[in-house]
Structure formats: structure tokens, C-alpha cells
Design a protein that fits this description.
Oligomer: homodimer
Radius of gyration of chain A: 22 Å
Helix content of chain A: 40-55%
Number of helices of chain A: 10
Strand order of the largest sheet of chain A: 3-10-9-4-5-8-6-7
Largest sheet of chain A: 8 strands, mixed
Strand content of chain A: 5-15%
Shape of chain A: globular
Distance between the termini of chain A: 50 Å
Structural class of chain A: alpha/beta
Order of helices and strands of chain A: EHEHHEHEEHEHEEHHEEHH
């Protein structure tokens, strides 16, 4: 129950008793939350397509139907990503001429946000899908994140346009024919450099990049914490100061712990309001499975923003404008 | 001139005057270094195949021919990776029944080393190539790095065997039929967890993973350093201690800087002796383009080790033993 803004109306979809008891625990008494019962819940470990067949009336399906019917403007889920993609595509449907939906994740490693698309909706991409991802994420960066004329990079193994596998080569050719602010191929080392605002890759590569980054960042924060603790212990041993060594140590430690908290946020995409599933006819935000209340609140805010700005209308227009391109290939 | 072990004989291949003047600068007087002249040098920015055609008698080609002719046991290069792969494959040739050479990089994020193959030699992999990469890197981990029964993981977007693109699915099936210690699919988050000793992926994905990790690690070390400096400044402001605040700060700072240096090494693969190009008929070690003398020394040591252990004989035997497998698919 993260959101208490009076101008937003929330439907909480799930097993009714569970949702109601959580509301009670949170001491909720307002009237802008409505509980909608679902008969089933798709678990994180479930195989998405399988689960959708077996578990009729699951919470994600019920929530998507609220959007489909127009009762709700957007759906936010921190559940099974594959199920979100399947329900988003099947129940909400794709926007006209959009071939595949893609998940766009936002990082903020430096002063500007970086959007990576696709991070796992589509592991069998064609060049046309990647082109559409670039168009959609570019609009998202401009309209929702406020980036003027976003630079779009294609994730590849080298900067020269002839580099990479056949998908990358074909996609590079397609992008060069667009009016997008195309920066050409970029390498892995540029993902976190902030040179590009939008990074396009197929969902297989994007998912691996996302999770490698998550794993490495965690590992490094751990290593850093150990380093800090050892340095502080080393200092305590070396300090033959007349004052108690406990005091300054405690302070350095505390200050560093605060800084580390901030560091973790910089590379934690759950801070940035979840990841929209771009290309579906409705707003669907996929939040990280281990989102806390703050992350869910951010995701709800992002969903509200995307609806307010009517991003999908812009996407449909732009995709239509570009759709002649594929015939020229 | 990194190596001064009397039992190793080095050929330094390059533009003769440049090499000789470097030797003079280093004050070299021993007799276990021989300078071999090359007419050309392939630059880092050169397109590999193009450059090999244009620049006949380049240093990497001359060096590979020393191995081919039996005068040298191994070649170490910190030059153009694509050129190394092309020369390794064309000049040294592949081991019997090996389909593609693969670059194996070693990280040590935790107590055990992790080998990732392929990080860029082959961006158009087939399942059979990935299988052979697993076999070769498994032998490398066992024989050269001393890992008993290395656990081999296939980098994918989910752990279930039916996950991923068609290449990943087919490769998973192939691996399950081997006697390798196959851990199944692993996700990006597991690359640095140390759960697997060998991680197999196609060169497109592997190159991006390698470079994303490099970029993220650097970015995080920068962020850590800023965090440390800010914490120390904050401490200096807050410390109303009677002792001079300069002293303890300087010490904490110094200790932390030392720790950060160690941190960088943990994720810097140049520390681990460069990356062997596995599958070629000879020993070729590709070092990072910005290797320092220590990294080159490590690479020379690794090359020497691979020759001494006769790793290629083991690889040829094992590949032959597995070669019946592809016919059963």
C-alpha cells in the first residue's frame, strides 16, 4: 500500500483475504483503494504460458482485463515477468503495426538516465523488432524521462557498422535509414558510460546484460564493504592515539555505509519506477520481483505518468510513420 | 621486457628499431631475448581481415609463424583481437575436429577462478561450437587452473532447460548428453557468483558481457572513490576532536585506496594471464590491449604453462572422444 495520493485510484488485484489482511496491517482507511479478487496467482517459478493455461483468472490476467475494459488506466506487477509479457501481449494486444512488445529498463549510472530495451520479452528478435524498440524507447526517453533528442545506440561487439552477427548488421542498416538520433553501434563498455540515452539489443542479450550487471554490482558492493571494514579495523589497530579509537571509526563507518546505500541505488533499476512493456495497447509496468514499497510506489507513479502523457498514442503514430521503412529493405 | 626468468627464451616481434630502443630503455643485457623484425604492425583500429591482406608480414603473423615452424612454443599478443583470432585460425590452424576457436577469459570474483568462453572470436555460433567450447574450457580449468571437475554452465535467460533462444535450447540438449560436469543453464546474475567454473556463451553475448562488466566495474570503483572521499571530508568537518583531524583521515584514506586497488584487480582479467585462444594448433594468448608489464608477464607465464602441460594434446583427445555426439543429434 505504497501510494496515498488522493488523485490516484488503485485496484489491488489478488487473493482477496490476503490483500484485505495486508490492508488491515497497513491500517488503510481511505476510499481510493478497491480490492479486486483473483482466483489464482502465478508464482515466480511458474512457466508463463503453462501457468496461464492452468491458472485461469490469475491476478495478472484480472488486472490486465481491468485495463482492457477501460476501468483502469494501467497495470503494475512485480510478479512473473514472462507471465506479464504473455498477458500484456495476448490480453491487451499490440499497438497497430507493432510486431513485438519489449521491456525497457532505466538505469541512472551518471547524471542522465539510460534506457535499455529489450531485457527479456523477446529472445528471438528480428531487425524490424529492434528498430521498433529503438523508436518506442526513444519516445519513452523523450516524453516520460524528459531527454531531448535521445541518442540511440545499438549494442554490438564493435563500433564499425559491419561488426557483429547478422542480426546486428541488418539492424544497423535499418537504423541508419531512420530520422532517429542514431549513434551507431556501441560496445558493452559504453552501456554505463552515459554516451547513449537509449540502448537497443535483443531480449536474450539484454536479459543477460541486466542480470550480469545486477550480479556484478552486488558482488562489488560486498567487496567494497569488506574493504571498508578491513581498512577501519586496520586503522583501529594502528591508531595509538590518546583518544578512544572507537569514536572516529564509528563515524567513518557510518558515513561510508550511508554512501554505499546511495551507490546501490544508482545501479538499482527498481528505483526508477519499474520497466514498461512497450508496444502493448495499454500501460503495463513490470517491477523487479524484490521491489520494496518505495519501488512499487515509483512504478505506480511511472504508470500514472505514461497514461497521463498518452505515450501509446505517440508510439502508434511514430511506428506508423516508420512502417514504410521495412518495405525498402 | 617483463620476463627475466632464465629458463624462458623470448622472441620480441615487431618493428626492429622500436623494439631495440625499448630494450635499451629497459637496460636489457641478457641473452634470452631475441628480436625478430616484422615489416608491419596491425593497429588496434584496423579491420582484421582487411589488415592481414594489406599488411603482409605483420608482427602477429611473424610471431604465429615462429610457433607454426616450431621455433617458438607460444605467441602472446596484446594487439588487435580480431587479427589474433584470424592469424591463429589461418596460420596455426585448428586442432583436429575443432570447428571454431574460442577466447577463454578468466575472472576471479571470489575464491575460485571463473572461465568465460567465448568472448568474441565467434559471433555466429552453432550448438556444436558451444559444446566444443565447454569441453576445451573445462580442460583448461582443470589442467591449467587446477579446478577439479569444473562445473560447466550455459549462459541463458533462465534456468529451465527449455528457456532461451533456439541456439541455447539446442546447446543445452547437447551438453546434457556429455559426461561433462554440466550445471545446466545459468543466468547473468550467476556469472560472478562462483557457482560455475566454466561459463559457455556465444562470442556475441560473451564479448558484450565482458565489456559491460569492465565498464560497470570501472564506473563503480569511481563511485566508491567519490563515496570514500565524501565520507572522509564529512568526517573531517564533524571531527571536533582535540587531535588533528588530518592524521586519521590520511590513514583511513590511504588504507581505503589500497583496498580499492585490490578490488580493481579482482575484476580485472588482465591479472589472470591473458586469454588463451582455445582450439588452435599452437598456444596463443591474447592479452588486454591496455596490459601493463605485470599483465604481460602473467600472460607469458600462462603461455609457458599451457605449452608445458601440453593442453592441446588433451583438447584434441577429448574433442575426438566427443565427436560422435554431433551425429546423434
Amino acid at each position: 500500500v505504497a501510494q496515498r495520493h488522493a488523485d490516484v485510484r488503485l485496484f489491488l488485484v489478488g487473493r482477496e483475504e490476503a490483500v484485505r489482511s495486508e490492508l488491515q496491517v497497513a491500517g488503510w482507511a481511505g476510499d481510493n483503494i478497491e480490492v479486486v479478487a483473483a482466483e489464482a496467482v502465478i508464482d515466480m517459478g511458474d512457466s508463463p504460458i503453462d501457468a496461464l493455461r492452468r491458472k485461469k483468472g490469475s491476478s495478472i490476467e484480472v488486472a490486465a482485463r481491468l485495463v482492457k475494459s477501460g476501468r483502469a488506466d494501467a497495470v503494475v506487477s512485480a510478479g512473473n515477468t514472462g507471465a506479464c509479457v504473455a498477458v500484456g501481449t495476448l490480453c491487451l494486444g499490440l499497438l497497430p503495426e507493432v510486431r513485438r512488445a519489449g521491456i525497457a529498463v532505466t538505469f541512472q549510472p551518471g547524471p542522465r538516465p539510460v534506457v535499455v530495451i529489450d531485457v527479456g520479452a523477446n529472445v528471438a528478435c528480428k531487425a524490424e523488432h529492434l528498430l521498433q524498440y529503438g523508436i518506442m524507447a526513444s519516445l519513452y526517453a523523450r516524453e516520460v524521462l524528459g531527454v531531448e533528442s535521445p541518442r540511440v545506440g545499438l549494442l554490438n561487439v564493435g563500433e564499425e557498422s559491419e561488426k557483429g552477427n547478422s542480426l546486428a548488421k541488418m539492424t544497423n542498416t535499418l537504423f541508419q535509414r531512420t530520422a532517429l538520433n542514431f549513434a551507431g553501434n556501441i560496445e558493452g563498455v559504453d552501456v554505463f558510460s552515459g554516451d547513449c540515452d537509449v540502448i537497443v539489443c535483443d531480449g536474450f542479450v539484454g536479459n543477460i546484460v541486466l542480470k550480469v550487471s545486477e550480479g556484478l554490482a552486488e558482488r562489488m558492493v560486498d567487496l567494497f564493504q569488506t574493504a571498508v571494514e578491513q581498512a577501519i579495523k586496520g586503522l583501529a589497530r594502528k591508531l595509538a592515539s590518546p583518544a578512544s579509537p572507537e569514536e572516529p571509526d564509528g563515524r567513518v563507518g557510518g558515513l561510508l555505509r550511508d554512501s554505499l546505500g546511495g551507490l546501490r541505488e544508482k545501479i538499482d533499476y527498481s528505483e526508477y519506477g519499474g520497466a514498461p512493456l512497450l508496444g502493448v495497447n495499454g500501460v503495463m509496468i513490470i517491477a523487479h520481483g524484490r521491489s520494496d514499497s518505495k519501488a512499487i510506489a515509483n512504478a505506480i507513479r511511472a504508470a500514472w505518468r505514461m497514461s497521463e502523457l498518452n505515450l501509446n498514442r505517440h508510439i502508434a503514430e511514430e511506428i506508423r510513420a516508420f512502417s514504410g521503412l521495412k518495405e525498402t529493405i
